[in-house]
Amino acid sequence: MPLFDVIGLFVVILMLLTLVSWGLTRWVARRVEGEVPAQGRYVDLPSVRLHVVEQGEGTPVILLHGLGGQLNHFTYALVERLEGFRVLAVDRPGMGYSAWRNEETADLAFQARCIAELIREERLERPLLVGHSLGGALVLRIALDYPELVGGLVLLAPLTRVQPIPGAFRMIAIRSAWLRKAMASTFGIPLSILSARRTLRRIFAPQVPPRDFAHRGGALLGLRPASFSTLSLELSQLNDPMPAMLERYSELNMPIGVLVGEADNLLDPERHGIALAGIVSVTALKRLPGEGHMLPITRPEACAELVRHVAEVVTSRDRVSDQE
């Protein structure tokens, strides 16, 4: 077969694959949103439209999920254990059902501003901020940039410093906006479907992903172009702010609780959560032997216990301040 014929055949096959992938991606996105609908309400803010699930009354608590996640990671088992609190589980910008105003940045400074806007809009008085994984880095950034808005921090298997991106994820850490959107609209979702089980096993290891995690835990929501695009963008920018944040951690002056799984193979607990305790004064540092990364789902009671403990410390500190 002549070379030009081979090239032409290759182009035709590539175009057909792209068209099929595009159609499959659109079909999957519609199916996913039908099976895992939005649970809460929307809050329109200057920088973003946030999807929030709210429950209870009392001391305000904001729950912020990690990379590639959504608020379902908290509604799965943790929210129901936080009785006596006004709990707001939030889809971070671009994830779950929260929509970007401008998708060009996913940096922590921007996301911190979004949550600060939420705190002001909802008139939350110095809430506790609970962050899991990348959400841990986000609550640290909020506390650094807006300390007057924050009562205390609870960090669950947190990201606290530069983290090498695993090889399996480097290929989707795409900085180019047009290439990222092209992948999200075509091959990104089919490839995500093919690797989903392996990815979940790695995220949960050494624990096993719950059978209902796809629906109840919201994992299916990651199989949409917007979610893939945000994941790709966040991966590409993951380490950019961390060196400067590390230098500022000594500024933190509020109750901080840290919970880590000693068998976490995504974020080394010694390097991240435990090392943070050597930089700032933490209220509580708890290590769970044999536990992995997905603590809000695998150990929700331990997470809730730490939230209650930090809340008590904040209340005691405020009481002392009022007496002075």
TrEMBL record:
Q: What InterPro entries does this protein map onto?
A: AB_hydrolase_1, AB_hydrolase_fold, Epox_hydrolase-like
**Protein origin, superkingdom:** Bacteria
Recorded GO MF terms: catalytic activity
Keywords, A to Z, come to: Membrane, Transmembrane, Transmembrane helix
The source organism is Modicisalibacter xianhensis
Transmembrane regions listed in the UniProt entry: 6-24
Instruction: Provide the protein name.
Output: Pimeloyl-ACP methyl ester carboxylesterase
Per UniProt, residues of the AB hydrolase-1 domain are 61-305
| SUPFAM superfamilies, alphabetized | alpha/beta-Hydrolases
Q: Does the keyword Transmembrane apply?
A: yes
